[in-house]
Design a protein that fits this description.
The protein is mainly alpha-helical. Helices cover 48% and strands 8% of the residues. It has a two-stranded antiparallel ribbon with strand order 1-2. β1 and β2 form a beta hairpin. It is globular and about 45 Å long. The relative contact order is 0.10. The mean pLDDT is 89.
Length: 122
């Protein structure tokens, strides 16, 4: 489906890469990527690497967008379970995911307000 979609938008650069090479490239030069699209397992591998190079699991937003549904959450699932009740978890990932959700829903003004607040705090 990605190939077919890419053909409809030839002005957007489209490249396929096996997950091993993508992982190496992501660590070596992350700024070469704007958007990564991957199936669930490969997405998890990429998300774990992304968390490591961006400041940890509390900084990594996530989204799973399908044809009929969209889910926005922190990018790393099943992490930080040992932080429960310790007041140590970083909420940035879920806040940034909320910004992505608001943009997806067509509410950019609210997304901009939250994004601005996050940037001010950071």
């Amino acid at each position: 489906m990605a190939r077919e979609t890419a053909q409809r938008f030839p002005f957007i650069k489209y490249e396929e890469m096996i997950v091993d090479n993508c992982s190496m490239q992501l660590v070596k030069n992350p700024s070469q990527f704007d958007v990564l699209v991957a199936p669930n397992l490969y997405g998890t591998i990429i998300a774990n690497i992304s968390a490591g190079i961006t400041g940890g699991v509390g900084m990594t937003p996530g989204a799973s967008i399908g044809q009929d549904y969209a889910l926005f959450s922190q990018g790393m699932s099943h992490t930080g379970l040992g932080l429960t009740g310790k007041n140590q978890a970083n909420p940035t990932a879920i806040l940034v995911s909320s910004v992505m959700m608001l943009r997806y829903l067509g509410l950019p003004r609210f997304a901009d307000q939250i994004s601005s607040a996050i940037n001010s705090v950071l």
